[in-house]
Specification:
About 50% of the residues lie in helices and about 10% in strands. It is of the alpha/beta class and about 800 residues long. The protein has a 7-stranded mixed sheet, sandwiched between helices. A 4-stranded mixed sheet has the order 17-20-22-21. A 3-stranded mixed sheet has the order 13-19-18, with no helix packed on it. Helix 17 packs antiparallel against helix 18, helix 19 crosses helix 23 and helix 23 runs antiparallel to helix 25.
């Protein structure tokens, strides 16, 4: 036994080896046998003088004769002490009262019903003798012996609650609620002195305190039998979970809260136009047609959820073939849980919430990862997190592609992989990683592919930089990845089967070779403070695909950081990852600047591989963002922690801060410009369309909706998704090999009207065009063609009139051709 401390002494100066604390509330009927059993067992122990234990029973405001039972026992045995609370405050308060009054070098907390027999104390004692700070009885481990079980509902609630508690507050402990726990006396008194919870969840708070202090907690299988008269009611389980959430909230550092608010505030500045006079009323002008498409995705997913329809498919666009939503960027991982927001406030608000909250959450997630694994300075982590969320490629995709900008799951995935490398809880961490990967698949598959590519490059770089460490972590990492696959694959198998082999599936995307120009890595993006829109436009596809544009100062500073901190294998690996990703992003043919010649690029090795053949290779530059953000955080952490010993060191430190500022400040993003949403014509907005379109039939806008003309998607949303139309803006199959293209396979009438819109000229219409038109009417099951005021309205109206052979009707503000009779002929 350890030497006695002042707290472990009786008033007479005798050491107390063990204190047993028993909380009691209305236990008159079963307390006396329990006290007798405890006393008899303690007296039988041959571990010192007869008075080396004490038994504290806390009467928590009982309304029966509980106190009298305790007083009678205390009259026979002076080492039994009664503590009373004037009113019932809860089990946690009673245990706290007893523990803080204890004097034992070790403290056992046990329930009054002795569901776990006192004889199991020896099992817990052994674990403390071996060095643990606490030993908790468990009903969930192999070797646990349960003679009388609870009813199935209690068992199910207990397992669910234990799993959530373990995930949220006390990792590694399978059974936090078993009422039989032995603690180191000084440590448990310190834990209870800092505790606040009075209810059933006090165990979680105390064990969490031990976990945060890195005090070892051993879980020990014990005997256990359910006792009649339990005070735990079904509503206690949600109460415990609510307390766990309060614990988590209370444990958030003020600095973390401040950083999160700063991230959110900056995201609001960027997307201020979306939150103007009417939340969700703005349209990001740089997004082209994409915002309208995303709002449609949110709207149709919410509608599917509300009506219990298939969330992976819809025929509201591209009627009658439909759209494979799993094969499109519908972000079901957000659009499904945010369906109530969409239904209540509209998809425009959901769009604003996803972008604003998503970028802030991404920054906070990277901040958390860096503070945990890479840096000690919270402000260094804050800089790194801000860069990872608001770097030029992220801001570019934040214009129109939330599946590439909202990446809050990536740091959580990286964290689990780093935990696997430690090899402590391979099974548990692998299972959690599998769940995270499955969820990320419903947020963005291509983003996950790029992230895993980055992780692979980092692993390769680290293996070269530190082969001994790489060999040591390889086995637990691979084992955990295997567990992750076993968890992830069953969850995503069916959706992926629908994506790749279901209706309207496709197998690759035609986009050509779109690598970065080498100068794009050194220039500034359109939305960067130092950006020049003309320069950025000359080096990128469009403003939503400015995938590099890190600026030459950051490139220079990053190289300097790698050289300065080259003694760290992780820094060399990060530098390799950024460099390799940058080179891969140049594509299959790397242009030689100043010439018309090219060099073969390493992307050729990946271009034909499954999944990679559909990647726009310039997007691989996005992999550079996380390594660069971590390098900036490491440099900031080094500068913040450096002790100054001379004027020369002071000047070097100031030079370092100036270099970081020169690298980061030019990249600060500017707010996104917005305009108002284009209103739907009154014909659609006031529901007049219902007079023309029957259920199961379509309304055909002129020209037929396409990726170039998505106006009708907004009409459909404003009409409550009440009608379907042919064509649209989505990814779908083309040709017998099902190659992926944007939009539908064009039918003759759609092509004809598209050319009229483009040229402004009405073509001659003959029998061939009219025959194709009738076939298209039947295929689309069209009831009406509608033409709203727009450019080249007159030639479009003339063309449709010649095709139908009838004059349109001016209805409110729209030309309407009623063609349902023609479609049936």
């Amino acid at each position: 036994m350890t030497p006695a401390t002042p707290a472990a002494m009786t008033p007479g100066g005798t050491a107390v080896g063990l204190t047993v604390v028993v909380p009691a509330y209305n236990e008159e009927q079963r307390l006396a046998p329990s006290l007798d059993a405890i006393r008899a067992h303690l007296d039988s122990l041959d571990e010192g003088p007869a008075d080396d234990w004490e038994l504290i029973v806390v009467d928590d405001g009982s309304a029966d004769g509980t106190a009298a039972v305790i007083e009678a026992a205390a009259a026979e045995e002076p080492r039994i002490r009664l503590l009373r609370t004037p009113a019932n405050r809860g089990k946690g308060h009673a245990v706290r009262t007893g523990v803080l009054a204890s004097r034992g070098r070790r403290v056992l907390v046990t329930d009054a019903d002795l569901a776990t027999p006192i004889e199991e104390l020896a099992l817990l004692q052994r674990r403390l003798d071996a060095g643990a700070a606490a030993a908790v009885g468990s009903r969930a481990l192999p070797g646990s012996r349960i003679s009388v079980r609870q009813n199935p509902l209690r068992v199910a609630l207990g397992r669910l609650g234990s799993g959530l508690i373990r995930a949220a507050a006390v990792p590694g402990i399978r059974d936090t609620q078993c009422g039989f726990k032995l603690f180191d006396g000084d440590k448990v008194r310190a834990a209870f002195a800092d505790s606040r919870l009075d209810g059933w969840s006090y165990d979680v708070e105390i064990l969490r305190h031990f976990h945060q202090q890195d005090w070892e907690v051993a879980e020990v299988p014990v005997r256990w039998a359910h006792q009649p008269g339990s005070k735990v009611r079904p509503l206690a389980y949600p109460a415990v979970l609510a307390d766990v959430l309060r614990l988590r909230a209370r444990s958030v550092r003020p600095s973390t809260l401040l950083v999160g608010l700063l991230y959110l505030g900056f995201a609001f500045v960027l997307y201020g136009g979306l939150w103007g006079d009417a939340p969700g009323g703005g349209y990001l002008t740089d997004s082209g047609s994409d915002q309208r498409q995303w709002e449609w995705f949110f709207a149709v997913t919410a509608d599917n959820v509300a009506h219990f329809r298939d969330p992976l498919f819809t025929d509201l666009q591209n009627f009658p073939l439909g759209v494979n939503l799993m094969a499109n960027t519908a972000m079901l991982g957000l659009s499904v849980p945010l369906a109530p927001v969409t239904l209540a406030f509209g998809p425009q608000v959901t769009w604003a919430v996803v972008l604003t909250g998503g970028l802030a959450a991404t920054a906070l997630s990277w901040y958390w990862l860096m503070a945990k694994w890479f840096v000690r300075s919270r402000w260094a982590a804050a800089l790194g997190g801000a860069f990872c969320a608001f770097a030029p490629p992220m801001v570019s995709h934040g214009t129109a592609h939330p599946n590439f900008a909202v990446l809050f799951m990536m740091p959580l995935i990286v964290d689990r992989m780093l935990r696997l490398c430690e090899g402590r809880r391979t099974g548990r961490d692998g299972a959690v990683l599998g769940l995270f990967l499955a969820y990320q698949l419903f947020l963005g598959e291509e983003a996950l592919l790029l992230a895993m590519t980055g992780c692979g490059l980092f692993a390769l770089g680290y293996a070269v930089a530190s082969p001994d460490v790489a060999r040591a972590v390889a086995r637990p990492l691979l084992r955990g990845l295997g567990v992750a696959a076993l968890v992830c694959v069953p969850l995503v198998a069916y959706p992926l089967l629908r994506q790749f082999h279901g209706a309207q599936s496709y197998h690759s995307v035609l986009h050509g070779q779109v690598g970065n120009n080498p100068m794009a890595l050194l220039e500034f993006a359109t939305r960067s403070l130092a950006g020049d829109p003309k320069v950025a436009a000359s080096l990128s596809l469009n403003r939503t695909e400015e995938n590099a544009f890190f600026g030459w100062p950051l490139v220079v500073v990053a190289v300097a950081i790698v050289v300065r901190l080259r003694d760290q294998p992780r820094v060399r690996a990060l530098g390799f990852t950024a460099l390799a990703a940058a080179v891969l992003s140049l594509g299959q043919n790397i242009p030689l600047l100043g010439t018309d010649k090219t060099l073969p690029g390493p992307w050729r090795l990946l271009a034909g591989m499954p999944f990679y053949e559909s990647v726009i290779e310039s997007r691989v530059a996005m992999v550079c963002v996380a390594p660069l953000g971590i390098l900036l955080a490491l440099a900031c952490d080094r500068l913040a922690a450096k002790r100054l010993r001379s004027e020369r060191e002071t000047s070097h430190r100031l030079l370092g801060w100036a270099a970081l500022a020169a690298a980061v400040v030019p990249l600060v993003p500017t707010p996104y410009p917005t305009a108002g949403h284009a209103p739907a014509p009154a014909f659609v907005a006031d529901g007049t369309w219902r007079q023309y379109v029957r259920p199961g039939h379509t309304l055909v806008p002129v020209p037929v909706p396409s990726p170039e003309d998505t106006t009708a998607l907004g009409w459909q949303v404003q009409a409550g998704l009440g009608f379907a139309f042919p064509g649209g803006y989505f990814m779908g199959p083309w040709g017998p090999e099902h190659i992926g293209i944007y939009g539908p396979e064009r039918r003759p009438t759609a092509d004809l009207l598209s050319k009229v819109k483009e040229t402004g000229k009405a073509p001659a219409i003959g029998d061939q065009e009219r025959s194709a038109f009738r076939k298209d009417l039947a295929f689309w099951r069209a009831d009406a063609f509608v033409l709203a005021p727009q450019d080249h309205e007159l030639p479009l109206r003339e063309t449709v009139t010649r095709l139908t052979g009838r004059q349109p009707q001016w209805t409110g503000d729209t030309w309407v051709w009623d063609v349902h009779a023609m479609a049936e002929d």
